[in-house]
Write a structure and sequence with these properties.
- There is one protein chain.
- Helix 5 crosses helix 6.
- Strands 1, 11, 12, 15, 16, 17, 18, 19, 20 and 21 form a 10-stranded mixed sheet that branches.
- The chain folds into 2 domains: 200 residues, TIM Barrel; 128 residues, Lyase, Ornithine Decarboxylase, Chain A, domain 1.
- The protein is α/β, with parallel strands linked by helices.
- The protein contains 11 helices and 21 strands.
- It is elongated.
- The longest helix has 16 residues.
- The structure holds pyridoxal-5'-phosphate.
- Pyridoxal-5'-phosphate binds next to helix 9.
Length: 379
Amino acid sequence: MTPVALNTVIVDLDALRGNFLAIRQQVGTGVRVMAVVKSDAYGHGLVPVARALARAGADTFGVAEVEEGVQLRQAGIAGEIVVLLGAPWWTHEAVVEHGLSPVIFDRQVPAALAARALAMGRQVGVHLKVDTGMGRLGVLPAQVGELVPELQGMNGVRLAGVMSHFPLADARQAGPTLAQCRRFQAVVDQVPGLAGPGVARHIANSAAILRYPETWLDMVRPGISLYGCYPTRHLARPNLPRLTPVLSWRSTVLQVKEVEAGTGLSYGHTHVTRRTTRLAVLPAGYDDGYSRRLSGRAEVLIAGRRAPVLGRICMNACLADITGLDHVRPGDEAVLIGRQGAEEITADEVAGWLGTINYEVLCQVGARNRRVYLAAGGA
Ligand SMILES: *Cc1c(COP(=O)(O)O)cnc(C)c1O
């Protein structure tokens, strides 16, 4: 492999596998693991990530929409594929053809889906979503008792799961999340047909996996933790203390030069040097997912040291202060996210500079750059 692109996102499939197996082991054999690979696997690449997870033993995947599920089937992924945003009517043929399992939250969709499935001689699994406190997708608990018998009367669909989602599992306080889980379990216990063996009960995202074993139920749904990041800082003693970041982002020094004190740098001259300054020009800008809002805040790793980004970040370029690093040459590596020598810049750190969360950083950076996949066998 000869890299030609100036910026490369490196996806470490061995780290991904290690994270998956650590989660798998943590929850134990009685609990299924749905690997959440929505949004292009959080920017890591849907198909390569799903294939690596399948090789590691994953048999259940979560995607946002039907189109992603179709891509997985076309890539040869077997197992259950749960479509978290559900299946609007125009996707039903694809859902049935590819054997996807949509989340449902009304009676119209499963009725239409059942009719389509029967017409095609099939049956599709569905996961009933109950809104126990997210205030987003899901039927309200009071409606579940009426809906479940209707679902059971629809021959083309089979109730494969009942689920809910936590809005506060990453917050400092445990109380609201544990209370929500008990509310969910009460709904499941009160409605005949939901507690049976064929129906997987699931509610735990990464934060709940890391903090609250009592929420694991029949299946857990890790996303961010698969990719080696933590969903929150409120993890005093996470169950999995050593997840490995899967994504790193490497760039290249294009030019090195020394400018005098008093030199204005980049658009707007928002930075004027106060001393003789050695600069590295890097080919990373907001088009590459290196947000302009990082201007004057970010640092990069060059020659194993932290180098502050100076002045505005441009569309395709930015400047790093490498004063004192006399051996840096054009062609040297610059790390925007990841390790270099003893130093590391994490997605969390970049997210902190941006005032956002690591999830958004991964999605953005992954989507905007050429990705290279590393595994034990080589790239
Ligand atoms: C994205 C998502 C998850 C995964 O959440 P993480 O915080 O990344 O672990 C789990 N469940 C649902 C319904 C989701 O949409």
